[in-house]
Write a structure and sequence with these properties.
By secondary structure, this protein is mainly α. It has five helices and no strands.
Length: 206
């Protein structure tokens, strides 16, 4: 009797060996795949402010006669002239050059007048100059006192405007009245550079 040939079963294909994962030791945390680091974020870079001058973001004066704006880079003559023309003006701004040239002018002027008064006062005690020198000495002392009193208001106005140029309240200049510390604080404020925001203190000329 015919018998069917035996059926051979296909051998299974070669299988990859199982992957064994290393078990953590007792007390050891299982390994966790770390996420890639994100690129660092940097703060936006701001362009430095340009040098102050006529017009521009600082809205400086174009000539010395333009009293409603600060004159950046003013020379001594321009600074002193603008100081007396803006005698009692507490609005607007004053540049650092305007402020410090006027300060130097008053410093030198008081020293010179004081030295002259001292020399004449010393000569008044000599026999040869005693009769005519004493009135001159008194006159010079009177000039010094009048000049000092006359400089109070314009000096206060100039310092007030210098605070405005640094975008500070002009009233901060009154810190000079505080003994010891007040003058030092105001000195630091007068060294600050101009700020474009200080234009809010300018006079509106119509």
């Amino acid at each position: 009797m015919y018998q069917a040939p035996p059926v051979y079963q296909a051998q299974p294909e070669h299988q990859a060996p199982p992957v064994y994962q290393q078990q953590p030791y007792p007390g050891q945390q299982p390994y966790v795949e770390q996420q890639p680091y994100a690129a660092p974020q940097y703060a936006p870079q701001y362009a430095p402010l340009p040098s102050p001058g006529p017009g521009g973001i600082f809205d400086g004066a174009f000539h010395a006669g333009e009293l409603g704006r600060p004159l950046y880079g003013a020379n001594p003559v321009q600074a002193v002239a603008r100081f007396f023309k803006n005698y009692a003006n507490f609005s607007g701004r004053a540049s650092r050059s305007e402020f410090w040239w006027v300060g130097l002018f008053y410093f030198v002027a008081f020293i010179v007048v004081g030295m002259i008064a001292g020399v004449i006062e010393s000569l008044s005690y000599s026999s040869s100059y005693y009769s005519g020198s004493d009135p001159v000495s008194m006159f010079l002392m009177l000039v010094i006192v009048v000049a000092f009193l006359g400089s109070i208001v314009p000096s206060l106005a100039l310092g007030w405007r210098r605070m405005h140029d640094a975008n500070l309240s002009g009233a901060l200049y009154l810190l000079n009245l505080v003994p010891y510390v007040g003058g030092l604080v105001v000195f630091v404020f007068t060294l600050l550079g101009p700020r474009p925001e200080g234009r809010r203190f300018d006079r509106i000329e119509r």
